Amino acid sequence: MAMVSSAMAGTAAVRDAAGPDAAAFPFRCELSLAPLITFWTQLSAYHEFGRGPIPGLVREKAREAPELAGVIDDLSVIGKHQTFVDLMMTALFPPAFWEQEYGAALFPLELRAFYATPPFRRSLMNEDGTLQGRASFLQKRSVDPARAAERLWLAYELILERVYGLELGGDVPVMMFTTTDSSTGLDQHFRLQFDWRFVDVQLVGTKPPLPDGVRQELAAGRLDSEKLRQLLPAERFVLRGFMIVKAVDVTDQEVLSSLKRDLIDKDSIVRRSSAPSSGGPSYASASRPSREIACSS
To answer: Using an 8 Å Cβ cutoff, are 58 and 90 in contact?
Structure first.
């Protein structure tokens, strides 16, 4: 199966398409399939993926393609070993759901894919791998600052977990993407779910110390990103690997929620227009029952 589009499998350097906000993000991020290779090669025979010949085959093929375990600066490296990459990716994108599932592998901490299922590529991906559509969060907040802030916090959470053994347990806001269906011209809504288990943190030099007082502040949620910048300098860490995103089509739910919101707005207008004036009694609304409509997303 050809799982990387021809436009993405060329010889363009990875860093050339890092996106407009790459410079503002202080951490160095590098694409590598080393965590995926490690997943396959260290599988126990008792693991569901550890049964059968695939782990042994991955070990053999990994020795023949050492560049996949290194830093991938050129996507043609993936194209060169496409069959092997396809085999390893079956752990994340089962072949049985290949034509139905919306899923992709992303550059670490970027909304840019280098590998995707056909439905994801058609509905959510531009030719250069960037995600297409209008982004929003389920929480009420400005999208761009929120996305930048969550990206930074995710980097710190990964560092604290992988390097210092601290799990903050923070919730990452659910991201919604709205695209236009090419066949109908109507909006299509997706809920994006991210998985960063295949992002490793590499130390550059010695590990910066983390005082006990800071650990307590982190546990209490009282430490801001500016203090973390000072304690954990970005140049001391590299985020290497890739992320997974699965998208769920929630168009029906979003359309229904929109209709409910419209009904609530119209009901509110009717209530205001029929409210009694300050100068006298109202007989029209005296016996009108209240009506509430639950809005779900």
So the answer is: no
